[in-house]
Automatic annotation (TrEMBL):
Stretches assigned to coiled coil: none
The keyword Transferase is assigned to this record: no
Species of origin: Marinobacter lutaoensis
Protein name, entry field: Globin
Alphabetically ordered keywords of this record: Heme, Iron, Metal-binding, Oxygen transport, Transport
InterPro entries: Globin, Globin-like_sf, Globin/Proto, Mb-like_M
Length: 130
């Protein structure tokens, strides 16, 4: 099985429980006061739902899907809208892998590395639209 398949299946094990997304935002917001402030007025239940799809878009992009949806995220996260600083994406990915480690019973360090490798091209596309 290749890395995109391994990550796709790992995500299937993780995203069954809403707690995965709750824990992700807990870790992500804990990583920086600036990031916590960005979500001060956000409806977090809706945001968790949006992220569920967002992570799937990153995985599907690695599997060859069109970049159209990620380009739209690149636009919304750019300096013209949410103004998400490029260096924050590393914190985002760290928080995600930390959450996968806690939620996927089949987690291994190799699987964590596969997550990083598979998500990186899509994350870079969003970040580089800054
Ligand atoms: C909104 C996904 C990284 C902050 C959203 C939305 C999605 C999403 C799907 C809702 C759709 C939209 O508004 O365009 C992602 C993905 C990321 C990522 C897949 C990883 C590459 C980040 C980072 C930050 C961030 C690194 C902050 C440091 C926000 C904020 C909103 C948002 C502030 C709007 C919240 C609101 O409506 O109040 N993101 N995001 N995102 N994201 Fe991200």
């Amino acid at each position: 099985m290749n890395n995109t398949d391994l990550v796709f299946q790992s995500y299937g094990r993780c995203c069954r429980k809403e707690a995965f997304f709750e824990d992700f935002y807990h870790h992500f917001m804990a990583s920086s006061d600036d990031i916590r402030a960005l979500f001060r007025d956000t409806d977090m239940a809706a945001q968790r739902h949006l992220l569920r799809h967002g992570v799937m878009q990153l995985i599907l992009y690695a599997r060859g899907m069109s970049d159209r949806k990620l380009r739209a995220l690149g636009e919304s996260h750019s300096r013209r809208r949410y103004n998400i600083r490029p260096e924050w994406y590393a914190l985002w990915l760290d928080a995600l892998v930390k959450t996968v480690r806690a939620h996927d019973p089949d987690y291994t360090p190799e699987l964590g590395a596969a997550w990083r490798e598979v998500l990186m091209p899509g994350i870079n596309l969003i970040r580089d639209a800054y």
